[in-house]
Specification:
The complex is a heterodimer of chains A (326) and B (306).
Chain A: H1 2-14, H2 17-47, H3 52-67, H4 74-92, H5 102-113, H6 117-126, H7 131-136, H8 139-142, H9 149-183, E1 191-194, E2 197-199, E3 202-204, E4 209-212, H10 213-241, H11 245-262, H12 283-287, H13 298-322
Chain B: E1 5-16, E2 19-30, E3 34-38, H1 45-52, E4 60-65, E5 68-69, H2 74-79, E6 81-84, H3 96-104, H4 112-121, H5 137-149, E7 155-159, H6 167-184, E8 187-192, H7 195-201, E9 204-209, E10 212-218, H8 219-223, E11 228-234, H9 236-244, E12 250-251, E13 257-260, H10 266-275, E14 279-286, H11 290-298
Parallel strand pairs in B: 3-8, 3-9, 6-7, 7-8
Antiparallel strand pairs in B: 1-2, 1-4, 4-5, 9-10, 11-13, 11-14, 12-13
The chains are: A mainly alpha (326), B alpha/beta (306).
Chain lengths: 326, 306
Amino acid sequence: MSNLIQNEMMKLLAKKRLLIIGVIVAVLIILFTYAQYKQAEEQREKLGTDDWRTAVQQQIIDIQNRLSSSRMLDEWREQLQVTVKQQQYYLDHNINPSEPGAATFTRMFIENASSLFIPLLVMIVASDLVSSESSQGTIKLLLTRPVLRWKILMSKYITLLLSISIIVAMTGVLAYALSGVVFGYHGWNAPIITGFTVEAGNVDTSGVRLISQWQLLLMDFGLVWYIAVVVGTLAFMLSVLIRSTPAGMGIMLAALISGAILNNMVSSWESAKYFFMVNLQLTNYLSGVAPPIEGMTLLSSVLILFVWWLAALIVSFIVFIRKDVY
Amino acid sequence: MMSNVTLEVNSVRKTIRKREIIKDINFTVRKGEVFGFLGPNGAGKTTTIRMLVGLIKPTAGSIRICGYDVKKDYKKAMQHLGCIVENPELYPFLSGWNNLLHFARMLPNVGEERMMEVVKLVGLEQRIHDTVKTYSLGMRQRLGIAQAMLNRPKLLILDEPTNGLDPAGIREMRQFIRMLAEEEGMSVLVSSHLLSEIQLLCDRVAIITKGEIVKVGTVSDLLSVQERMSWRVEPIELGKEVLRSLTEVMETEDGYVLTSFDEEETPKWNKALVKHGVKILEMNRRLPTLEDLFLELTDGGGAGIE
């Protein structure tokens, strides 16, 4: 088996996929670092002070002004009210919600990247792991060796898991290393509040706990890895089912983007919560953003994703072992 | 007896969506022979070959390679097999050597030494460390054979091995295949839709059409199907009349007159034509085409078969 995995890694590296992904991540992080830096600077100019309390205060006032506008969807209103309450909580307890530093940047980047950006990167690898062999015709050489088919597919799947781990780790390291140049390499121990739960537009603070930022980062990365594995496995399944890599990628892309859109409009369509793409914003549960559909919890989302993962894996293996190769 | 047979195909059928693509195929390939698999495009050659190498599962029947059933003893059967199905599709982004390494890792007991050996065997020493995308078709073909030889197979299956090669490449390939059979004692199964190729290369041949084997026999048996002579004459009606008085005559759609070929008789017919004032524009010996053969074989039993 280790021979087969070595083979897959050799092909992956020769195609320079991971390198391309690394470059994409680096460019994006540089862009965001600059944007963040600009924003902080502008805020300082506007408020005339470095004090974070003033900034948070200002944010609360801004949101309240928006809330007073009568033409606003109810869902949006609720979401904003929740944000106001959270900010107020931070203010009351004298904790800076966005302590400057590379660690904070990394956390924000990974949280925002979790439902679309990282899955997209994973897709680059997962989508053509099997279908490229079919379209190149090398599958015929691969499947006429004295190696059982499930072992070949398993070696490819393990390679996928390795690549996902590399991609997630790479994103974290690059985000910390590059943003640190501007924001400074600190912030690991900054206190962070987690455990807000949102019910019917009310923020429940009874479960709130204070943890260090590194603890939250660790949880964030764990969740992001989990999301990436689920999305990667689905793309992997499509790659087994469909010979053409672009077609598989297109389907996966459509699903991911529709997930991003659905998140903003499904609050009244309850059964939509069984779609995998509506459940990708796992990190939001940690920071206390209201879920897109009421009743969704971290546990329910993780379970729904697990079911999708398992189904995709079973379908992949059964189809790959049984199919006739033309 | 059994040890002499490297491939045994027993009542193999394949049905796809209720259509029977392959209908009850039976044949054996013996040690040290080059076996031809001849049929027009779409006759089921490639489907059959894909079943032999385990890419497609037969609906019924059994395939044994060196006595091991492809279905039940897949790993053991594949250890004795080397194959190229259709074009030798290798990884274009890897070097020739890494391609070999890739397939060597999937085989038991194939190390660098053996890899070096097969590279030498196909004469790719100079370019083996270049990426495959810089290779010519002939070099890819040779690398394809090198990977098929890694495990010292007892049976080598090549699907249309001369497809796309230039005449020099075709001749080289032919010599190479003969060498493998005669010197290494390997069985080689070669598929083709060209009769001339099978004639030059194979010891025995199976003819397949519409998913059925219509004949298995030695190549010399097949050749006993008469060769023909084709004439282009002017005026054609007169020419036909003259020839008809001497022998049996057929006319093709594109204006040729066909007769049988006979070294004794043909010059006499020629003389007769000239005597009657018929201009002879063209005379050609014609090998039987595949269609002729099929006609002969599927029509009323066929002369000179086995």
